[in-house]
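Lab manual, section 2.4: Encoding a predicted structure.

Procedure: take the sequence of the chain (374 residues), apply the prediction step described in section 2.3, and record the output as structure tokens. A sample record is shown.
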Amino acid sequence: MPRPIQASIDLGALENNLRVARRAAPSARVMAVIKADGYGHGLLRVAGALSAADGFALLDIRDAAQLREAGFRQPILLLEGFFGAEDLAAIAGYDLACVIHSAWQIALLDAYPGREKLDVWLKVNSGMNRLGFAPQNVARAMEQLRRHRAVRDITLMTHFANADEARGVAEPLALFNDLAAPCRAARSLANSAALLRYPETHGDWVRPGIMLYGASPFAEVSAQQLGLKPAMTLSSRIIATQELRAGDEIGYGALFRADHTMRIGIVACGYADGYPRQSGRVEPEAPGAHRPAPGGCAPGGTPILVDGQRTQTLGRVSMDMLFVDLSELPQAGSGSAVTLWGEGLPVEEVARAAGTISYELMCALAARVPTSSK
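Recorded output:
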């Protein structure tokens, strides 16, 4: 029999989440972000479920080629644009749009010998200071692209650094609007958080990412409250149990020490499957004395479901296994079903307990984990 860990992708959840995005931004076209192998859900699987999207955004020309060869005809945007002059022929051949974020890319366009024209998205650095033209250079870049023999259509875009936080988008939005006013170009600003919270950012194209996969972009609002459904459920089973006495320790580094008799389960899932190694609970060695958490170890335990009942992980996650507390689950034992995240256990809750973000958990799913869709 195969090892019991598996990831199940709910295609209906992806479709539902796209509908939520459309309802939130009814006047904008939807550029579904499916980079990183569809956030770990499978590129072609996700594209098929989101085929009603107006376009797709990703990073790699090879992924874009897969979509075109699979029959997808929507606009496809390369979010980091091209990396060398040799990319331009493929971009033109597959009719891809590309982000222009730096002057060196315009220089490469100048040397492009092809006759096909390209659709480009001019990126404005509105404060994130990652990619994009500085505000004082936007007008010049726009003018260069407007007059360029290789450019067919231009969309002006930016990306918000704080749309999911209290700081919000007011300052970068005002800056972007001032720069965009004289440009007479389509606009794209909103990621998932801005799409859901700031209608004034919707523009012509919205770019939902994390929300499409059923996770909330906000720390204080759940996916369920937003009408989102989890697309990925990572599950496994308990493969062994152990009875602990007071003072017994478990796992590498003996990070958990039982202070009373208890029962634990061993789950067939570890960091080589993509589960965060830093998950686990560090127990006090003695009343009033807390053992310091090692680097990257979450101090409160990470939630997990066993036979549909909540409990928590214990100790340090191993490469292929992790420990779970069965003390309050007398019915559970070898063979019991385990949900690591997904249906019944939001991935963002697991991520928060483990000191990371839902994006990382989903994208880190290992290739060795069998994945199916329903």
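Check your result against the sample. The domain at 232-373 is CATH 2.40.37.10 (Lyase, Ornithine Decarboxylase; Chain A, domain 1).
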